[in-house]
Design goal:
alpha/beta, Rossmann fold, five-stranded parallel beta sheet, 3 domains, seven-stranded antiparallel beta sheet, Phosphorylase Kinase, domain 1, Transferase(Phosphotransferase), domain 1, about 15% strand
Length: about 475
């Protein structure tokens, strides 16, 4: 079945007003969100889709599927977004209990997505004060690349003109915050509560609040304290983190999703397993079903194929342009991993110490710099090299470092001691991001996607040579 230039492959889900399809256009798979056929011309439904498109167009993060465009086919509006091969967290929860590391990594990715959404702004710089309002396992896609995405901003609330109906409790009752149930004004801390419910379920395989009816469930959320996760098989050292996220009073919760993420990453780091994206990927792959099945016959009755009118496509760039990278690294193994991980997409040049780095910087213009902080045996460490580039270095420069022009090239710090260097500190030192040693493809692709605005999946190598 076709809808304009899209071939509808299969229905991914449906609700009271719309449905979501896996579609194909020009050889590429995408996701289409459409109103139900009998509601395609209903003004309130069309306006709802339009608002969702406005929200999505302002979000650019690896943990949120990329918005491609909104359009109209013969009076049927649609939203087109990136297709992420993977499985929903709701599906995984029905199959098995995830490892602690995988659970923390999934929620840390969701917290990253929430941080980005909560800080989103309009084109004229005003804060959207965006609240997702439906943070739940069914709206989390665990990608086969190991990265979890937060989806479905259809009922998201904003402080400016994108808001859905005020004063109406929307979302799945099991994951609603107390203030969401009582229809109070919401802020980012409501989403943190919902994320805490999901983490509780991941670690105990039981909901923190359960009841025989929706009324009693909401009463439990409002008035009852859940059992400690450790009493239900969860790790004791995460009791305080989860219970804080589930505080009845929003003032007692984590105040930002970034703060919640930091606590999760601290615990993840203590496991000495890296970032555990690999564990997430392995678990998702174990439950892989054919992500691109053959099209269903007549998945739904839709208008005949007509010319598609594209209304909006804020990011027409389908593939990132080639970016040259300088990697200042004294350890051969980390250089080799980075070079093999990124060589199909970038041209990498190596400097083994500060002298080689400045020699290259005087003769080449690099668009991204990967900077080892330690640089054993070098006159200057990575932070000092960056200070020189930013015009902030206060000490005595070696002769070879003099005469290098000041520049704002993005610098990604690389270190085995990430706990010593909080991101806020590294940014104050002139860094744009951080990669923890030993370097790996997942971390590198995440950082590069943030820097150039492409999906992390686009960095996948073209062969299995890694």
């Amino acid at each position: 079945m076709r809808l304009g230039e899209f071939e509808l492959v299969r229905r991914l889900g449906s609700g009271g007003m719309g449905e979501v399809f896996l579609a194909r256009r020009g050889g590429a798979h995408v996701v289409l969100k459409l109103p139900l056929p009998h509601l395609a011309r209903e003004p309130s439904v069309v306006e709802s889709l339009s608002r969702e498109a406005e929200v999505l167009s302002r979000l650019r993060h690896v943990c949120i599927p990329r918005f491609i465009e909104r359009g109209d086919v013969a009076g049927t509006p649609y939203i087109c977004t990136e297709y992420v091969p993977g499985v929903s967290l709701a599906f995984l929860l029905t199959k098995h209990r995830l490892s602690l590391g995988a659970s923390l990594r999934i929620l840390a990715d969701v917290a990253q997505a929430l941080t980005h959404a909560h800080l989103a702004r309009t084109t004229d710089g005003r804060s959207l004060s965006l609240v997702h309002r439906d943070v739940s396992p069914s709206n989390m896609i665990v990608g086969f690349d190991g990265i979890t995405r937060l989806i479905d901003f259809g009922i998201a609330k904003t402080a400016v003109s994108l808001v859905t109906t005020a004063g109406v409790a929307r979302g799945k009752p099991r994951y609603m915050s107390p203030e969401q149930i009582t229809s109070e004004p919401l802020d980012a801390r409501s989403d943190i509560f919902s994320a805490g419910v999901v983490l509780y379920e991941l670690l105990t395989h039981e909901p923190p609040f359960d009841a025989s009816s929706e009324f009693h469930l909401m009463d439990a959320i409002l008035h009852h304290e859940p059992a400690l996760p450790s009493a239900r098989g969860g790790p004791p050292d995460l009791d305080a983190v989860i219970m804080r996220a589930l505080s009845k009073r929003r003032e007692d919760r984590f105040q930002t999703a970034a703060e919640f993420e930091r606590e999760l990453l601290k615990r993840l780091a203590s496991l000495n397993r890296g970032n555990d994206h690999h564990a997430v990927r392995a678990f998702a792959e174990a439950w892989r079903r054919d992500p691109l099945p053959t099209p269903q016959a007549n998945p739904t009755k839709r208008p005949a194929m007509v010319e598609t009118k594209r209304i909006e496509k804020p990011d027409a760039r389908e593939k990132p342009q080639l970016h040259d990278i300088l990697y200042v690294e004294d350890e051969d193994i980390n250089w080799e991993i980075a070079e093999r991980s990124l060589r199909h997409k970038f041209t990498l040049t190596r400097a083994k110490d500060s002298a080689e780095a400045f020699a290259l910087l005087k003769t080449h213009h690099f668009k991204i710099i990967l900077m080892d902080i330690q640089l054993s045996g070098s006159d200057l460490n990575g932070i000092q090299i960056t200070e020189v580039l930013r015009g902030r270095f206060k000490g005595t420069l070696p002769a070879y470092a003099k005469g290098v022009e000041r520049r704002e090239t993005p610098v990604v710090f690389v270190t085995a001691y990430s706990a010593r260097y909080p991101r806020e500190l590294l940014k104050a030192m002139g860094g744009s991001d951080l990669v923890t040693k030993p370097v790996n493809f997942i971390d590198l692709s995440l950082v590069m996607s943030r820097l150039i605005g492409a999906s992390a999946a686009s960095f996948a190598p073209q062969s299995a040579s890694l």
